[in-house]
Amino acid sequence: MIEELNKTLEIIEFLNKHIKKEAISKKRLEEERVNLTDFIVLQQNIKKDLEKFNTIGKNKSKEILTLLASLNMDFHSTIWHLEQLHELIKKMIVCYGEEIYEEEES
């Protein structure tokens, strides 16, 4: 999934450079690059937490609850990261679409 997110951001960056009116600031795109790095770490944390479940005994309720809470926070953060990229996609749809319609009308 990380490859797909990275490719999506590359497409957004490419389109942003090739439209007349910059849709997304360079700063915002740089922030999203950092977010992708954070996303990779987040996915690694989820994987580690899931692997821990295999080593915890069924009677270790507090450890299980701690892992569930960690997974909950990590999945919430995952959703946030995806929403950030989703917002960039929607913004590019609007800006790129407006440019296409302006060209067709000319």
Q: What is the overall silhouette?
A: rod-shaped
What's the structural domain tally? 1
Regions with little confidence, pLDDT below 50 for 5+ residues:
none
Instruction: Work out the strand percent.
Output: under 5%
Approximately how much helix is present in the residues? over 70%
Structure summary, number of beta strands: 0
Give a description of the structure.
The chain has about 110 residues and is mostly helical. It has one domain (about 1-10, about 25-105). Helix content is about 85%, strand content about 0%. It contains 3 helices and no strands. It is rod-shaped.
Secondary-structure blueprint:
Blueprint: H1 2-17, H2 26-53, H3 61-105
Helix pairs in contact: 1-2, 1-3, 2-3
